[in-house]
Design goal:
alpha+beta, seven-stranded mixed sheet, 17% strand
Length: 788
């Protein structure tokens, strides 16, 4: 037959014969591709929109600088190819209609700010471009004249173009070009040249009178500060891959007998076994490839056609869709690999799982004692390592505890099987022993898997919780801190923050650091430094740091005139703090002193350690003058929605591109550790349940005839239920012991319970126990289903 029927015709005939199977594989490939490529495309397009928006805000320039120092501004005015931008807030009016807007003003026509959607960029004084939402709200067309009110100034402007913000679909901005005048106060300067290469600016940059950032760093900050939803989408392809693996394994288990029957039919028709299985392989690969291709292109086409709706759902405005070709290739390759492996696995897996040890009667007598001896040896190693963990923390012997626990678990299915078999009389005991042997390997593998994933998850969560409890927060929880923000940009920030629903804005002025820097410490740290004779921070002995704070030597900033001096609570001793003046020329301490201060809320870490009134004695004694830059804290930042938080961060990158940002709502390293532990627990649960169901399910299939025979000879349902229960208890008890060993290992015998180990480390064990219950049901129901 193989000579008469071509391979193509045979495949077509097989597809017609097994059309449902082909459809299932194609549908699985379609769904997996859509689930992986769709979120990856959305995430890539959103990231590209954010990058496009930021680059447009910087007029495609490479560096952005901010300052409020008059001397630095004078130097900047005399340098070529540096474009100034003033950010402010105002109102645009057309006829009787008006709308609040963000006003971006420049005197350099070469700066093409914003993404142009129609018309052209303004290149003459008096011309402006307007965002599409504002133009639509006011009914403004290109060529119309509008009135712009900003900072007590009103001027007419000719609309020459529409702009859009790819990262903000509700952008309300106008961009205008004006003549240079005393009312023009830039807040940032843009250049393609590194500002540090200008000799006139080096001293100001070294003294932090001006700060600047390369656009690549700002793009990185924008990516890090992307909305939580977009960050979460990064894990969807991996989740789809795990789900696909589970589904493929399930299909393999379900179709193994059918494929074996089909292969036998093809062999009977004249094909060799290898050729028969190859036809089945190519059929499954072709159907999966068809599904993956269709799923990928379908979701890409859907996102392209609905890009306006999808981007609006994210609060953005996409002009194009970015196709993540690497993700498409990875998904296609992974799914195809899984499909290619499915046929060989289906061919050989039943042989592997149907194998079980068949010891002779002489060896059988020694099997349980040997297993018990191995378990006892593992328990001894585990106890010795556990004692070492408690006695000496860094004893290398303690590392043997997981190994000892694993050695205990490997033979326990044999022991539990023998003990449970004693519940039955002679002949049934022998029958049960055969059933139990089929579960030795799956139960041992699953128990070890539960131990490994549980240990890693619990220990990682414990370390994260302990580290977090011992580490002071760098900024108050739920706040957002902007360091080195020009005072002239703060009104625009307040306006943006208020529009988003924020209220509490706290600003501390940064003193001018031309001559030196004033720092604060605890009085004890100051006395220790004086006694030790040190004059620089690098020379301070560790024992001088007597307070558990994130920054034992911190900055001093200026508060409102007439306010009380406040300091971080950990630095205050007897209502006083220590002061030290570092000379700008030498970097050494030249003056020391103390001042009265009360503990203040939200100080320390990335925030100042001391805030003194601008007209107080400390400011006068150390000649502290405002530098035109401030440190701003948005204390109720956590009350904003994730989308509004993202909008605010993006706005800060534009208003203060040289500022340093600290987000009290962002995930910390400890949060990431806990997330990794939870992911490992979830993956372990899926793996444990899948392995046990596959191993036990194949064992049930292999014993269907035996179970049916028991029914035929009058074995009652109650006795079959007990037999099935004891059989399913072999893996369940092994997993229970694994959970107990996991807890005792990570808690050092219950002695280390200072912080939580998390709530998910036992999830793999729970999944395995549930799988054992499912196996009991199928084992018990298999004979009756067989009779019907």
């Amino acid at each position: 037959m193989s000579g008469r029927v071509s391979g193509a015709r045979l495949v077509v005939a097989y597809v017609r014969h097994r059309g449902v199977q082909v459809l299932v594989f194609a549908l699985l490939g379609f769904l997996l591709a859509a689930a992986a490529v769709g979120p990856a495309t959305v995430r890539a397009s959103a990231a590209a929109a954010a990058a496009e928006s930021l680059r447009a805000e910087l007029s495609q320039r490479t560096f952005a600088l901010q300052t409020n120092n008059p001397e630095v501004i004078d130097h900047l005015d005399g340098l070529p190819e540096i474009g100034p931008v003033q950010d402010g807030v105002g109102e645009v009016a057309s006829g009787d209609a008006s709308a609040p807007v963000a006003v971006r003003t420049t005197t350099d026509p070469q700066l093409q700010l914003g993404v142009l959607s129609a018309g052209e960029h303004p290149d003459e004084p008096g011309e402006l471009s307007i965002s599409e939402p504002v133009a639509e709200a006011l009914g403004v067309a290109i060529g119309d004249t509008v009135s712009v009110r900003s900072d007590d100034d009103e001027a007419a402007g000719l609309v020459v173009g529409y702009v859009r913000d790819p990262a903000n679909g509700a952008d309300n901005t106008i961009i205008r070009v004006v003549h240079d005048s005393p009312s023009f106060h830039p807040t940032r300067w843009l250049s393609n040249a590194d500002f540090y290469t200008y000799p006139e600016l080096r001293q100001a940059l070294d003294r932090r009178s001006a700060t600047y950032q390369p656009v690549e760093w700002l793009l990185f900050s924008a990516e890090v500060n992307s909305p939580q939803l977009l960050r979460a989408l990064a894990y969807v392809p991996a989740g789809a891959g795990i789900l696909g693996g589970i589904l493929f394994l399930s299909l393999v288990a379900a179709l193994a007998r059918t494929w074996a029957s089909d292969a036998g039919t093809l062999v009977a028709a004249g094909l060799t076994p290898r050729s028969a299985w190859r036809h089945i392989l190519w059929t499954s690969l072709g159907s999966v490839l068809l599904g993956v291709t269709a799923g990928s292109w379908a979701v890409l086409a859907g996102i392209w056609l609905a890009r306006a709706e999808v981007s609006a759902w994210l609060g953005q405005s996409w002009g194009h869709v970015v196709i993540p070709w690497s993700q498409v290739a990875l998904v296609t390759g992974t799914v195809m690999l899984a499909a290619a492996l499915s046929v060989p696995v289906a061919r050989y897996l039943p042989r592997l799982w149907s194998w079980r040890p068949r010891p002779t009667r002489a060896r059988r007598r020694w099997l349980v004692p040997v297993a018990g001896a191995v378990a006892v040896a593992g328990a001894i190693v585990w106890l010795i390592a556990l004692r070492a963990s408690f006695a000496v923390v860094d004893d290398p012997t303690a590392r043997l505890a997981p190994i000892g626990a694993a050695v205990v678990l490997l033979p326990v299915p044999i022991i539990f099987g023998a003990l449970l078999g004693r519940a039955f009389p002679g002949a049934i005991r022998s029958l049960f022993s055969g059933f139990a042997r089929a579960m030795w390997v799956p139960a041992a593998v699953v128990a070890t898997l539960v131990l490994a994933t549980g240990l890693w998850s619990a220990q990682t969560t414990h370390d994260a919780n302990r580290g977090e409890s011992m580490s002071p927060l760098p900024v108050p929880a739920g706040s957002f801190v902007i360091s080195s923000m020009p005072d002239t940009a703060i009104p625009a920030l307040r306006e943006l923050y208020g529009d988003l629903g924020g209220h509490d804005v706290v600003a501390y002025e940064i003193p001018d650091a031309t001559d030196g820097n004033l720092r604060v410490s605890s009085p004890g740290t100051l006395r220790c430094m004086i006694d030790s004779g040190v004059t620089t921070i690098t020379e301070v002995p560790p024992e001088c740091y007597d307070s558990p704070v994130a920054a034992p030597i911190n900055t001093v900033l200026l508060g409102p005139p007439g306010s009380d001096a406040q300091a971080e609570g950990g630095l205050v001793a007897e209502d006083a703090v220590g002061l030290m003046w570092f000379s700008r020329d030498t970097g050494s301490i030249t003056r020391t002193g103390t001042t009265d201060a009360q503990p203040g809320v939200g100080l320390g870490g990335n925030l100042p350690g001391l805030v003194v009134p601008a007209d107080g004695t400390v400011a006068q004694e150390y000649d502290l003058e405002p530098s035109g830059m401030s440190e701003v804290m948005l204390t109720d930042f956590h009350r904003l929605s994730p989308e509004d938080q993202y909008t605010l961060r993006a706005g800060v990158l534009r208003l203060a591109p040289g500022a340093e940002l600290a987000d009290g709502t962002s995930r910390t390293g400890f949060d990431r550790m806990r997330t990794q532990a939870d992911v490992v627990s979830a993956v372990g649960a899926v793996a444990a349940g899948t392995v046990l169901l596959l191993g036990g399910g194949l064992a049930v299939l292999a014993q269907r005839l035996t179970c049916r025979t028991l029914v035929d000879v009058g074995f009652s349902p109650a006795r079959r239920a007990v037999l099935a229960l004891c059989w399913s208890l072999v893996p369940a008890l092994s997993v229970g012991l694994a959970l107990a060993l996991t807890f005792l290992t990570v808690s050092v015998g219950g002695r280390v319970l200072d912080v939580s180990f998390g709530a998910l480390w036992y999830l793999p064990g729970i999944a395995a126990v549930v799988a054992s219950g499912i196996l009991w049901f199928f084992f018990y129901r298999a004979p009756e289903q067989g009779r019907h």
